[in-house]
Amino acid sequence: MSSLSTLILVYFYVIVLCGVLFITHANVDSEMTPLSSKLIQTHQVDKKFYIYPLDQKFWWRWPDPDANCSHQGYLSHSHALNSGMGNVLDLDSGMMNTWHDSMFNSIFNRLKRSKRRTYDPEEASLFVIPYDLGLDGYIAPNCRLRKRCSTNYVEELKSYLLGQKYFPRTNGTDHVVLWSLGMYHPWPRNGGNDILAKFCKHCATTCYWMDPVTPMNFMSVPFPSSYHWWDGIKTIPWDDSTASERTIPALYIGATQTLNPDHTKIRRAMAAQCQAHANCTWLQISHSSMDNSLKDFISSYRRSVFCLCPPGDDPARKALFDILLSGCIPVIFHVSSLFNQYLWHIGEKLAREISVNIPGRQVSARKLQFMDFLLNISPETIRRKQRAIAELAPRLQYSMPPLHMLSNISDETPWDPPFRDAVDVMLDGMVDRAEKLARNESTGYPEIQLGHREW
């Protein structure tokens, strides 16, 4: 072979080698770039928020310590412990007796310590109004149930906000109201209804369930689960590496009675099928937040493959998030329990990947045996759903600061979890919403606008 031919051949191999290296490098970049971009973008969207410095009477609305709460069976003073996160049930797994209407406290305990908080309103892209409207409107200081806000609180709050330049300049589109209940819980009198329907009608208002027909300005965010990540957690409840230890094929924890007749029919028919099937376990629990066996009940989710989640008084249930954060696959019997809800935290695509949807009315009409359907789901599909839940779970829970911080309701020591939790996801969504409204764009919330109610 001539020297010229050898040179050409070497040159050819160099070109081929460079091409392979370029293609390999490009493929690596193409695989890594989305993650890198996501991390960079995540850092860039950490825009700051401002919390109005309201008096304690607005953000701490739990009953007086000496009030008698034994008569109502709805909540107790134990729910107010640890700055409203509740008493400890199992600290190793982060299980607390968090009341299902403690959304305000679950979010506020994170917000006031977040690195994204600014004390300069000129730096803020979002403004948080720290008034626990749900608790004030439903529980009196003497622990009696009511449906009205404390006298003059709303008027004082409105006067304060109108005296600031930030609320009037956008009519509240970049402001946040932390409503801990469902969108259709009766709005409390003494101004509570005015705040939600008129004064703050453009604010981003949280709720645990949103009507996708007339969503208004309500944004559904996760119920506060009993599980909270914290710095000293030893057992991650949603860890999918323990999937082989799930020995209960299907589990239902709950009662059959609700305030919605259709939902009660679904529950009764579903519970009857469960009770009659050897592979389904029904643990009956009272319709209360104060059951003494709560720790044992919630722990049962971690030993189960499928967890039944029929609708309650409305389609939403706290149990859905206890189930997901236990790594169990939720079986929903009402499409609006999960779908077209929690857009920022879950979305339609992930909702399909992490759950099983059973038509509840087919069950109540005795046209469908849901256990036959569940037992025919392949092991591969089950594992895929379990892995999807484990990946999603951290962003569905409200991380908890150390207990020594929570022992003082006024403590604001800076603290953040090492990952983005439900509060960070909510903040990102609300900032995005405010920016879209400022540009007169659609917020895309809800994802699907329904034309009629089916619930």
List the helices and strands in order.
HEHHEEHEHHHEHEEEHEHEHEHEHHHHH
Low-confidence stretches: 1-44
Sheet with the most strands, sense and barrel status:
5 strands, parallel
Report the end-to-end length measured between terminal Cα atoms. 83 Å
The helix count comes to: 17
- Average pLDDT number: 88
The assigned structural class equals alpha/beta
Report strand order across the widest sheet: 1-4-5-6-7
Helical residue percent?
A: 25-40%
Q: How large is the share of residues in beta strands?
A: 5-15%
Judging from the principal axes of the Cα atoms, what is the shape?
Answer: globular
Q: Count of DSSP E strands?
A: 12
Q: What is the alpha-carbon Rg in Å?
A: 25 Å
Describe what this molecule looks like in 3D:
With 455 residues, the protein is α/β, with parallel strands linked by helices. It is 38% helix and 10% strand. The protein contains 17 helices and 12 strands. It has helices at 3-44, 56-59, 81-84, 103-111, 133-138, 153-162, 166-170, 192-199, 261-276, 294-301, 318-324, 347-354, 360-364, 370-375, 379-392, 403-406, 422-438, and strands at residues 49-51, 88-90, 95-96, 126-129, 175-177, 204-207, 218-220, 248-253, 280-283, 304-309, 329-332, 356-357. The strands form 3 sheets. It has a 5-stranded parallel sheet. A 5-stranded parallel sheet has the order 9-8-10-11-12. Helix 8 links the parallel strand 5 (175-177) and strand 6. It is globular and about 65 Å long. The relative contact order is 0.13.
